[in-house]
User: Which sequence fits this backbone?
């Protein structure tokens, strides 16, 4: 059906699958060139119901946690214009006339077609119960749903989700994010009945309930009860129980949107879905259907995106002429993180011989304490039939490609916890070339290996660009890295192209031992093209003796400092700034905004505040141990009122103020400092908070004064720059109300003193801290924390949390005890002395800014003229025509001017990004999500279809 002349394709629906079809046609060169009238190819008209282009529904819930909806976008105006695609938003199809081959839209427009593709997706099923349409009842499928639910939740306290499947648990997580108490009601006897068995569901339920979500299984919803104004207030269950419910979210499954097909006389399945053959062709040869609206040739309706993408490929092949790709069924393996719990299933997770075959052998690992459940199902010949992973899905990427094959290692290797005897996973070399490593885009290991060899790929980003593997759900990223490793591609040890041989610990050692006081000096002596770096030992700290081998090696350090001002990048500049900040007392440096250091700082550190998605900043005063005076609370309230800021209590027991413009920050901090508050350094890779319970001051169970210890801990380690953020917690007894074992530094009072736990963290990969020492006195405790932190600061890699650091250096807490307690390296006294110097040199960063007119100049909204630009750092400026530009000057004096608005988010922030170079090209990185733009052309190097406008450079004022 290849178009030898210009033909018209009408696509109904512009969701993920519909847009993938457009991409697949473009990749095959099957779309008509808009610059060649009547040329060969398909001219496409898209009738879309929503008023926004296609977006990533898989990650829809991330919008609740602050992701800008624009970041979910899959389409760009450049892609549509470049291929002549007529996208009609908010104008869905209303009627199909298959005899006349026309589609009538809601607007009344009639579009003729030579081929038609239905990509209408599905709609949420809402059970027919009384009150289901009351205000406060929602479905959860679109960005509109997210906006409506978010707005309504502001006046709600409790929410109930009807449905305990994938979307239902995501919706429950959304309710928690919105601050509501959440319940989940599932009619089946267990959660996620289509993906996990009883054991997996039990582990998942325990994890979810530990997060404060109430779970009700084996019951249905009977009625939404309303108040006098008709709003939802309670949900009555089939058991008779009533749950408080200001918000009800229906997530009880979906139904194919096949109305248009039914009314047009096309064949549909008995349970819904447009019936299609292996080419996704309907009963009309000119009409196709893909995605959740289609019942495929195997009789199923697939609700996952990966099968939809495969259907899109099959239709694209038909329309492009080859017709080689067919769709006869799909792998429904999936890996998700639901309410912080990893859940994965692959193959046939319920293989039990019920279809007449031999009963599968089950191999199960279960750890109820950690909420982990893993099950593998093996066939009679030892082949892997399927599996379920809950709580720990690390082995998913290794297991899924082996479905249907014999495992290359004993099953225990895939099930036992990392580090356990016999738990060494085989590498990617054990995978056959035809194993599918990316189900979303049906990419095999052989295709990935071929791309690595053909294009000389060296990282996962390159694989994504060349093959699309890893750009769907992201569950295969670890496997892609394993394929790189198996291909013999060495992981870069160095930071970036500017320091290709130096790791962060090695940079730290060089700066310390050679008293290097600036980025320029480090670049001149050890940057790209100069001296090679020594190879570190791995588990031991890179020592000053190792650095001695570099003394005097490298280029002449006579170049003017400004020459390198535009060098570096978003990776190495902040790292060096961080190291210089840590070693400031040793190097005699004063402030992170002094001189050249300002040009190294990321936007957060440059303005000593957290950048938010709209370009404004948040203000977080330090509240040590959560203790605050009435006067300080009043001052915070007055600042929020006077500057119109949104205020929120954080999980770290302090108050966050959102919405401040950078030019407001100095005035805000003058008011806060006046009542004894100081910077909480929420913007830095440094100590954030030391959370505490009330301890023995008030609690009848308290065995230690946790409040005072948390205050002492926070005040001692404030301002310490580290490889990543550090969090602390102090609990007054073993009941652990301060959640100290979820922190980098956790302290728990006992009858004999204090127990010290280290290297815990929450977030996407939570880890309990390990016990380092028991029953310590306060003096012993602080001495050991001094050593621990300084050892981490010396040896941690860039953006490496203490939990990942502990796993990388090897030996676990046994190694830490050898180094920090037994002093096996002979550095304990040195580590303590270095911490003492840090404590003695501490000065509140915001007080220092307010005392320094040069530092205050950074907070002016616009630069007065080009002549005031500092090399290597951008400033916003208003041009003569009123346009806001981002101006940059490099080390050679060249000035660049581009638009200040980030095209991905719409925030005016480009001038605040780091200026550097990439492959010799002068670039600026957006401070929001780090996309890099060529300062000469405005082109985005990470998304070529996006660009910044290049503007005229204003003349120098005389």
Assistant:
């Amino acid at each position: 059906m290849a178009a030898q002349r210009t033909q018209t394709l009408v696509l109904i629906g512009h969701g993920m699958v519909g847009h993938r079809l457009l991409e697949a046609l473009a990749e095959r060169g099957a779309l008509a060139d808009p610059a060649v009238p009547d040329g060969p190819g398909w001219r496409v008209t898209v009738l879309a119901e929503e008023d926004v282009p296609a977006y990533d529904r898989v990650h829809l819930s991330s919008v609740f946690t602050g992701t800008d909806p624009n970041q979910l976008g899959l389409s760009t105006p450049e892609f549509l214009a470049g291929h002549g695609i007529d996208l009609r938003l908010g104008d869905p199809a209303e009627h199909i006339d298959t005899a006349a081959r026309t589609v009538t839209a809601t607007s009344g427009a009639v579009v003729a077609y030579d081929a038609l593709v239905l990509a209408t997706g599905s709609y949420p099923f809402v059970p027919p119960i009384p009150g289901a349409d009351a205000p406060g009842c929602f479905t959860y499928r679109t960005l509109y749903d997210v906006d409506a639910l978010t707005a309504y939740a502001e006046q709600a306290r409790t929410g109930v989700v009807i449905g305990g499947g994938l979307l239902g648990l995501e919706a429950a997580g959304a309710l928690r994010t919105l601050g509501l108490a959440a319940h989940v009601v599932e009619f089946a006897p267990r959660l996620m009945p289509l993906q996990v068995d009883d054991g997996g569901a039990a582990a998942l339920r325990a994890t979810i309930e530990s997060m404060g979500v109430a779970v009700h299984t084996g019951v249905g919803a009977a009625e939404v009860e309303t108040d006098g104004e008709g709003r939802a207030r309670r949900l009555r269950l089939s058991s008779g129980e009533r749950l408080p419910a200001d918000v009800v979210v229906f997530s009880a499954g979906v139904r194919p949107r096949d109305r248009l097909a039914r009314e047009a006389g096309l064949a549909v399945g008995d349970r819904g879905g447009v019936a299609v053959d292996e080419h996704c062709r309907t009963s009309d040869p000119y009409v196709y259907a893909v995605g959740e609206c289609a019942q495929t040739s195997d009789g199923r309706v697939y609700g996952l995106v990966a099968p939809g993408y495969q259907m899109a490929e099959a239709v694209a092949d038909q329309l492009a002429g080859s017709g080689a790709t067919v769709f006869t069924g799909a792998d429904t393996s999936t890996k998700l993180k639901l309410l912080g719990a990893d859940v994965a299933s692959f193959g046939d997770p319920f293989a039990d011989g019920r279809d007449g075959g031999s009963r599968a052998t089950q191999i199960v690992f279960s750890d109820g304490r950690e909420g982990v459940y893993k099950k593998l199902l093996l066939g009679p010949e030892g082949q892997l039939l399927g599996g379920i992973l809950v709580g720990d899905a690390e082995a998913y990427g290794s297991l899924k490609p082996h479905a249907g094959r014999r495992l290359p290692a004993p099953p225990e290797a895939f099930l036992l916890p990392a580090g356990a005897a016999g738990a060494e996973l085989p590498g990617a070399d054990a995978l056959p070339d035809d194993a599918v490593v990316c189900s979303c885009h049906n990419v095999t290991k052989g295709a990935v290996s071929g791309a690595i060899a053909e294009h000389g790929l060296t990282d996962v980003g390159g694989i994504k660009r060349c093959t699309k593997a890893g750009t769907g759900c992201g569950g295969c990223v670890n496997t892609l890295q394993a394929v790189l490793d198996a291909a013999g591609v060495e992981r870069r040890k160095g930071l970036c192209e500017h320091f290709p041989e130096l790791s962060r610990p090695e940079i730290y050692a060089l700066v310390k031992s050679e008293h290097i006081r600036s980025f320029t000096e480090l670049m001149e002596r050890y940057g790209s093209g100069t001296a090679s770096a020594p190879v570190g030992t791995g588990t031991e700290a890179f020592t000053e003796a190792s650095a001695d081998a570099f003394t005097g090696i490298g280029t002449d350090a006579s170049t003017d400092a400004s020459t390198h001002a535009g060098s570096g990048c978003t990776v190495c500049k902040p790292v060096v700034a961080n190291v210089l900040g840590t070693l400031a007392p040793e190097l005699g440096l004063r402030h992170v905004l002094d001189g050249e250091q300002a040009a190294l700082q990321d936007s957060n550190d440059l303005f000593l505040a957290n950048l938010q998605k709209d370009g404004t900043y948040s203000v977080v005063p330090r509240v040590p141990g959560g203790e605050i005076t009435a006067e300080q609370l009043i001052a915070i309230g007055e600042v929020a009122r006077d500057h119109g800021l949104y205020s929120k209590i954080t999980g770290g027991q302090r108050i966050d103020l959102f919405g401040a413009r950078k030019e407001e920050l100095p005035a805000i901090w003058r008011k806060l400092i006046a009542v004894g508050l100081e910077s909480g350094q929420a913007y830095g890779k440094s100590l954030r908070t030391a959370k505490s319970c009330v301890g023995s001051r008030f609690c009848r169970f308290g065995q230690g004064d946790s409040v005072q210890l948390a205050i002492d801990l926070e005040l001692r380690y404030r301002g310490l720059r580290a490889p990543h953020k550090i969090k602390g917690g102090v609990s007054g007894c073993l009941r652990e109300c301060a959640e100290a074992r979820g922190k980098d530094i956790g302290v728990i009072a006992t009858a004999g003193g204090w127990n010290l736990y280290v290297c815990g963290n929450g977030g996407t990969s939570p880890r309990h801290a390990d016990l380092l020492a028991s029953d310590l006195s306060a003096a012993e405790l602080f001495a050991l924390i001094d050593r621990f932190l300084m050892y981490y600061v010396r040896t941690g890699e860039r953006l490496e949390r203490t939990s990942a650091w502990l796993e990388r250096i090897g030996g676990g807490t046994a190694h830490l005890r050898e180094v920090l307690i037994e002093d096996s390296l002979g550095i304990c006294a040195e580590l303590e002395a270095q911490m003492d110097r840090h404590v003695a040199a501490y000065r509140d960063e915001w007080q220092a800014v307010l005392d320094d007119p040069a530092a205050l100049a950074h907070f002016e909204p616009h630069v007065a003229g080009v002549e005031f630009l500092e090399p290597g750092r951008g400033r916003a400026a208003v041009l003569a025509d009123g346009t806001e530009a981002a101006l940059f000057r490099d080390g050679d004096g060249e000035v660049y001017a581009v638009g200040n608005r980030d095209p991905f988010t719409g925030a005016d922030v480009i001038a605040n990004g780091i200026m550097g170079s990439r492959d010799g090209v002068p670039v600026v990185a957006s401070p929001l999500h780090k996309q890099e733009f060529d300062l000469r052309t405005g082109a985005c190097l990470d998304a070529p279809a996006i660009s910044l406008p290049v503007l005229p450079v204003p003349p120098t004022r005389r």
